[in-house]
Structures are given as structure tokens and as C-alpha cells.
Amino acid sequence: MRATIKDVSARAGVSTKTVSRVLNREKYVSDEVRRRVEEAIEALSFQPSAAARMLAGKRSHQIALIYDNHSPHYIHQIQTGIWERCIEEGVRLLAQPSDAASPSLAAEIGGLIDQTQVDGVILSSPVTDSVAALEELDRRGVPYVRISPGTDHGRSPSVSMDDVQAADDMTTHLISLGHKRIGFIIGHVNHTASDLRLFGYRRALDRAGLPFEPRYVRQGFFDFASGEAAADAMLDLPIPPTAIFASNDDMAAGVLTVAHRRGMALPGDLSVAGFDDTALASQLWPPLTTVRQPTRQLAHAAASLLFEGVEGPVNRRLAHELVLRGSTAPPKAS
To answer: How far apart are CA 126 and CA 251, in angstroms?
Structure first.
């Protein structure tokens, strides 16, 4: 693998910022430090990429996060992860909400770049899969890193987790408790992760020999209200599910609210599981069993890829974890 600016800094025993100063022939670097960095560069055959040179120059000391997500808890973790990495580099983070489906998205991104001269961009789902956004950034030669892309993986550096396996693991857990009627709330239609999590749910059912029942699957939009609507629809069925797995914690909160409103005992009458493990999950009652997506770590890793100037189809995959709390239990004997 090609050496990165981080490799050079480690070998020379200095920060990546110091390596950048040497590469840009800036002042305030001692002759001894400059010599160590230059020797490390030669030993590693390091060649700064176009992205690395742009970031090394720190033209504006700013990078941008462009996102379109209905979960404030998720976006807070994304912003926190990037911000923590920006502090280490002395770079400002600009967070730009957008509509991934808007026909003016490319123009909006172009305007942001023109106005701020950001040195790089991080894209969060579903903007991460927007062809218009990617083409605009490519056209302008602005370095970017994608968080959890679902398409065109070789187009840029990215970070991700295995959404299919995570949903499979949670569904398998519910099956292991004895549930055979498991409802599922799909995430927003614009997010590729929504399809991946649905696939994982179906794969687990199939492996266990349980039929896929469309009546137990409802469309959601990653928000509380759609979780409520989906739960009402499923719980009104003549034979309702004994467990509901929502594609994020906000929708799972909506399910819990509906169950409480109906006077159901939780988790005795209904088990509920979510996805993400945002701060909300542990604040609900009962505390929510959920998939811990390493959201903040994914964002931190995306910022690291950007600052390191990594190019090409480099993907850093982080592990998920099941967090078992009080919202799931074996179903009542029928």
C-alpha cells in the first residue's frame, strides 16, 4: 500500500501537521525536524496525492459535512466524530444540511465550495450516494470521503459497517428468544442502508425457516412519527407480531410509545428492538435493545481519511455490536 502522510509522521516522530509544513516549505520548522521528515519521506517513497497537497496547504482551515438525515441523534454523533478529529488538526467543521433528492443539490454544493473554499468534504447517507453530488465534487477536484456508501464503492475513500449482518444478527437474536412473528420497519426510501437492513432481516428469517410475511413489514422514514404509524398498523392486525425490529432508534421509540398507549406490557406483550444505539436508546422505557452502530467512530475515521489524503477505493469497515437491554424478552406462551 502507498505510504500516507500519517506513516511519514509516525516514522519521523512528528505530527501530520509538521509533515504538512515541511511539504509546503513553511517556516517555523527546525532543521533537525525537517531532516527527519525528509528522510522518512525518502525511506517510505512517499508521494503526496492531489488531495493531500490540498489539505496540507490548509487553504481555508475548513472542511464540510453535507448530510440529509431525519434523525437528530444520528447526525449529532456524526458531527461529534468529525469535530473531534478536526480539533486535532486545528480545522473548522461546517455542517450543511441538504436534500439529497433535490435537483439543485449540485448547485448548492458548488455554492458552498465557492463561498467557503473548504479544503475537503465528508458526505453522509443518503448524500453519499448522490450521483449529482459526487460528479460536482469530482468536477471541482475537491477531496471527499463517503460515510456508508451503498453504491459505486470504488469511487472514493469511504468508511462503513456491515448493515446486512447487523440486521441479520438482531433478527437472529429475536428468533433465539422464541419469536416467530417479527415485524420490521424499513428505513427511509432514499437511504441504501434501508434496503441492506431489510435484506439482513429477510436472510435471518429464511435461515431459520420462518416465512417472510409482507403484512409484518412497514415503510418508515427514520423518524418517530413513522415508527408510530408502522406500529399502529402492525398491532391492529388480527394476529399481530410479538416483536418489532425498527431500522433506527427513533422509529423504535415510536413503537414503544404506541405500545404504552395501548396499555401493553413491555417486553411481555411486545419486544422492541432498534438500530444505531443513539443516546435516546438508553433513555427510553424500557431501555432499548438495539444494534450499536459505531457512528461517531465512523465519522472520526472518515475525517482521518480526508486529512491523510487517502485516494481511491479505500474502505475502513468498523464492527457493530448488539446491545441487549430491557425491551426484548421471550414471547408469552400462547
So the answer is: 18
Distances in Å between the alpha carbon of 260 and those of 18, 207, 246, 248, 253?
A: 57, 32, 16, 19, 11
Residue 330 in any domain: the answer is no
* Model confidence pLDDT, tens digit, residues 240-251: 999 999 999 999
Same domain, yes or no: 289 and 211 = yes
Neighbouring CB atoms inside 10 A of 78's CB total 24
- Say if residue 157 is in the same domain as residue 172: no
SS3 46: coil
76 and 179 assigned to the same domain? no
Output the CA angle 172-173-174, nearest 5 degrees: 90
- At 178-235, the pLDDT tens digits run 999 999 999 999 888 999 999 999 999 999 999 999 999 999 999 999 999 999 999 9
Asked if the bond preceding 126 is cis, omega within 30° of 0, the reply is yes
Domain count within the chain: 3
Tell whether 14 is covered by a domain.
Answer: yes
Same domain, 141 and 66: yes
**C-alpha distances out from residue 193 to 25, 72, 166, 169, 286, Å:** 44, 17, 11, 15, 26
